[in-house]
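tool_log.txt
---
The assistant was asked to compare two proteins side by side. It first ran the structure predictor on the initial sequence, then on the second. Raw inputs and outputs are pasted verbatim so the downstream comparison step can read them without reformatting.
(1)
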Amino acid sequence: MKLTISEIKIAILGGLIAQIAFEAYAWLISPLVFGPKLQPAFLVIGLFKQFAGVTPSYAVAFTLHAIIGVVGFGLFTLMFYKAFRGRAILSGFIAGLILWFIAQGMLAPAMGREFMMGFGVYTQSSFVSHVGMSLIIALFFHYRFRKDQTAGA
């Protein structure tokens, strides 16, 4: 699958928009609905301790997770958006579901946490955030790519 520079820029912009929405959700909405704040920087810290033997500061881990959210989520969702031929809801949901499973089903156990963290409230809120981010990105693609098509017509 070939990506153009323009598509990559749109993916990163979509990732940035979704990352800002995620932070609002993680710190403000998740505690009201589910109880815990989502702080994935602790997952990054734990993985670095486990596999690199170093403990990054919270600020470094937070920044690294945010960069992954902006660039990684944007590009990953773009691949599904293109594979599913612009079906925003389907591509966003599937991309988010996969990213949620990677975080909770693979990375969390890699640092010693229970598989899917026992399917507790943190995992449920994490599902909402991963799928929500990818849906925001895919819907942004839908808007931008349609806008670009009509501007060129």
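(2)
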Amino acid sequence: MECNVGLKEQKLRVLAGMAIIGLGAYYNTKALAAIGLIPILTGMIRWCPINQAIGYNGCADELVKDYT
């Protein structure tokens, strides 16, 4: 699996997943809490099947930066 989730997107996914899990805990909804795991997992492994299906690669921007 090649990286297709950038660093900014990774942070956003993990935070969004935590918020969704928090909402699931607040409303006592196990399904909502389980859905919150998806963005956390895709953020942690930095690979998303939806990004791959649509041809989006957030890691491409990180590879072309020149730090000179």
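---
observation on (2): Residues 7-62 form one domain. The chain has a mean pLDDT of 91.
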